[in-house]
Amino acid sequence: MKKSFASILYVTYLAFGIPAHAAEENYSPPVATHVAHEDSTKNQKKAQRAADRALAKQVRTALTKTKGLETINISVLARHGVVSLRGYVPDTEQVQLAGATATQVAGVTSVTNNLVPGQAGH
Known about the structure:
Layout: H1 2-26, H2 31-65, E1 74-79, E2 82-89, H3 92-103, E3 110-117
Parallel strand pairs: 2-3
Antiparallel strand pairs: 1-2
């Protein structure tokens, strides 16, 4: 009885086990391509964030070099070429000057000028 049971197990293994092992050796899960795609997407996002930071820095530098413009209360954000200016400047002329200066920086596609004339906190 024990020999016949062992024989049945052996035959079952030969019939189903060996082809299953062979199939496992040739199988490669699609996870690797998914992970590679995620990595490239992360790298693209990282590169875009770096480009946005660089553009914001270029705009801040241009604003700082503009004569007659007080930049102490101006913050600059950039995203995909769109620059946002926020904060306070002493008068309306400086609001326009800051917007015009930001527009002239290479890489800027548009400017959202949210500068307010007046003093911060008043």
